[in-house]
Amino acid sequence: MKIAQIAPLYETVPPTYYGGTERVISYLTDELVDLGHDVTLFASGASQTKARLVPMRPKALWLDDAPLKSPVVAHLAMLEQVRARADEFDVLHFHLSHFMHFPFFKECAQRTVTTPHGRLDYVDLAPSYGLWPRYPMISISDRQRRPLADANWLATVYHGLPLDLYRPPADRPGGTGNYLAFLGRFSRDKRPDRAIEIAEKSGLSLKMAAKVGDDDGPYFKEHVEPRIDGRVIQHVGEIDDAGKPGFLGDAAALLMPIDWPEPFGLVVIEAFACGTPVIAWNNGAMPEIIDQGVTGFVVDTIADAVDAVEKVRALDRARIREVFERRFSVAAMARNYVAAYEALLKGGGAASVPGGRAVAAPSP
């Protein structure tokens, strides 16, 4: 197949810093090339890919220190260039937020798929999608669909990671770790304050590898920073891919005490890749991604989370890695996207996969 992947322009593909969407696009694009497909990636300059790169601006928006930038204009200019070349591709796969591309591609909507990577409960999205109901959509979890339940959902395809990206620590197979981990951003929605309380009540230390985003400063200063003592509650700074296997693999569990409808949670499968269980709040896609009592626990209260800290010690970390390889590898993700593309082309844009999924691997 001739496939166009259209990425947001905020970060490079893969991202230089924080950017889960661009990371997934990178893994998917390279795997599709390895499967023999002819793939073109429309993305920001300095992106690295096995596909044919068409740079849409010299620098990613977040990496451009120009004093005046217009993300809207940058994306509109990209869409016009993609539209001019649309006939070159069998499938155009958009990874853009909030349906900005819909007005450009009405004539070939049946050859497009859109994967929204964020939440879909914004008040304007449902009525706006109603103006373009023919556009096929691919969700990253079944839970993500709920605010747009009547959209033209083609499949659900879970994120996947390369098998060799993260592995359990070789010198500690099957170990359980002696601390809890928190990884991501110090955002109110991600509730690091809950993670701190869980650690304090469980008797384990907490290591937080997280960044303070532009909008997170006041929350961090008030609710998190005063509780960091450097001993029980530690802030170890941001870590890169090279540091994640040790950080996650040596932890007793990753804490994901989120307070928002997380559509997937890439950090969860990063922990699984390291053989580390996850204790997550019952929000968003967590019940879909975590196999209760196998790869971790989904909880509703602090007390349940503290109880789960004891339970994770009995989980088989080798099995967690096995589940990751079966359900969340990049090969599984690409295979499922290809199945969705084929269904799209067979059904002229109205195709549907029974149960709302592509060939998603079953739970253990």
TrEMBL record:
All residue ranges annotated as the Glycosyltransferase subfamily 4-like N-terminal domain in the record: 18-139
Keyword Transferase applies: yes
Segments passing through the bilayer: none
Keyword flag Methyltransferase: no
Keywords: Transferase
Name assigned to this protein: Glycosyl transferase
Superkingdom of source: Bacteria
CDD domains from the UniProt entry: GT4_AviGT4-like (cd03802)
InterPro entries, sorted: Glyco_trans_1 (IPR001296), Glyco_trans_4-like_N (IPR028098), Glycosyltransferase_grp1 (IPR050194)
Domain Glycosyl transferase family intervals: 176-314
Organism of origin: Nitrospirillum viridazoti CBAmc
